[in-house]
Structures are given as C-alpha cells and as structure tokens.
Write a structure and sequence with these properties.
The chain is mostly helical. Helices cover 54% and strands 0% of the residues. The protein is globular and about 40 Å long.
Amino acid sequence: FPVTIWLRVSRETLKELLLRAVESEDKSQPLSDEELSTVFKKQGIMCARRTISKYRSSLCIAPASQRRRWD
C-alpha cells in the first residue's frame, strides 16, 4: 500500500507558498484555485479550493481569468 504523508503548514506558510506559485506560473495560462489546490495536494499539503480562494483574495491576488496575459 502506498503511504501518503500530509504536511500541516501554518496559514502564513500556505499564503507564502500560494504567492510563490502564482508568481512562477505561466502567465498565458494561470492556474485556477482548483488547480492550485491540486498542486498543493501533490506536494502533500491538504488544502481545499475554497481555502485557496480565501487566501488569494486576502493577498489581493486576482482570479486566474484576470491574471491571464495575452502577450
């Protein structure tokens, strides 16, 4: 059986990880809140989409549709 280890991270750590993820994403195809949640889950950090949305808003980060750049 595969063993999954879930990490417990503080609210501030999760916000910092979220900020880094958004800064490093492809600006022509930014990640949605659901996709960001999936990225964190793959890293072993359990985080719901609604939590990502709440923290993104508190950091004044726009939704994916508004972060998209058409360069």
